[in-house]
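Journal club side-thread
Mid-discussion, someone asked how the predicted structure for our own chain would compare to the paper's figures. Pasting it here so we can look after the session.
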Amino acid sequence: MKENDVPYMERTRNFYRAQGYTSDYQWAHYDDVPFTLLQKPLSKCKVAVVTTAMPDSETGRAQRQVHSCASLPIPSSMYTDELSWHKTMTHTNDVASFLPLKQLKRCEDEGLISELGNRFHSIPTEYSQRNTRVNDAPEILARCQHDAVDVAILVPL
């Protein structure tokens, strides 16, 4: 670690304190992970992406709720300004670096997956694990089930 680097956990605690939260963020942990093994080969699976980036639109900027967009055409930009990432060391100009739709489409073309889901889903970053667990995660699950998706790739930014 470089001299001026701030460890992620400390930076996150400071970020939430600066927003007025009085207790430090409690990182999610589960004794039983709510994921399942694949029931068929990945080459037979329809795959969706779930990201914390929002659509780069007025709706995406204003909306702090689950949002779904068509996977194709691949968006040329996503709204990431309010998310916490090292803005002096990197950028989010390359959508493919955090929204792997292009890569998954290539995997579909090569037969590595059966199909790219027709939508990708944006989920807001939340201080409240309860809100994520009780509201957002079930909504994402329902949307993936509606789209008949077998696998969801979670891509935090």
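Post-session note: Helices lie at 8-18, 58-62, 101-109, 129-146.
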